[in-house]
Amino acid sequence: MSYPQVRMRRLRRTPAMRSMMQRVTVRPSDLICPIFVDENVKGAAPIESMPGYSRLTISGVVDEARNIMGKGVKAVLLFGLPRVKDEKGSQAYAPSGVVQKAIFALKKEFGDELVVMTDLCLCEYTSHGHCGIVEKNEVENDATLEVYGKIAVCQAQAGADVVAPSGMMDGQVEAIRAALDDAGFDQTAIMAYSAKFASCFYGPFRDAAECAPQVGDRKSYQMGYGNTEGALREIELDVNEGADIIMIKPALAYLDIIQAARSTFNLPIVAYNVSGEYSMVKAAAQKGWIDEKAAINEILTGIKRAGADLIITYFARDVGAWLNQQ
Ligand code: PBG
Known about the structure:
This protein has about 325 residues and is an alpha/beta fold. The protein has one domain: Alpha-Beta Barrel (TIM Barrel), CATH 3.20.20.70. It is built from 10 helices and 12 strands.
């Protein structure tokens, strides 16, 4: 049968019918809210390139977590800005490091009500801004793995529920799993940034976290974006190394990768709706060029429709009753 017997518009006639026909919806509990905790600030410090977003003190982090939990969001992903950076990024695994303190404060306040996830990387902690240990101008893979293991244990000791390695070193998931298990943290989960592409859309984040590499770029460890098979191979390796959750990052220019991963793997899939994707929407909305809430709905629904179970997004703190209304 076809037109005129078939009329697709029949089921689009009223708002109630349209809502009934919506298959993909976004729950606040699908969202993970990134938070920047900064040891150098006395109060919220707005991030110029990310309108509406700030770097926070530890007590600011607790307030922010309370705010998003009030909206039904259940998880945060912490990034730290230490007072001092050095060659080896030692503040990343100092028990008194800023992220460790923030984890502790969140767990003390909210216990198991909040899922505390931590970015596990060196770039915010190293003076050179690379995600690993640099020797003779190269990012040394295996020397970095040892340090990642130390960071993981330190974050788990502070109370992290999930650690999220984002450095794209080979073997990082296996090394972190082994370090956690050896230290008795067999219940700490690993959310692997498995297919992380070298992307210009991280620009605002590097401002926010002050972690742009001082020399060179990240292309020797992050993936080139013209390659689906390579992304699936990265994911497969992480699955075999023991990842609990796999991630694709960024989200919007990579919806096909999310879909390919969905049809290949049965682990939970997270998409990272990154800083540049956030700031583009905010900037256009500020100019009055797009409807911000409608854009957020369409973007988050699109990412879920592609196959993501969870979305890390700076919009998590903006969600309201308008979520899912088309
Ligand atoms: C650190 C890290 C980055 C992001 C998350 N973890 C930056 C980078 O790889 O340069 C980007 C997040 C965003 O843009 O929202 N390794």
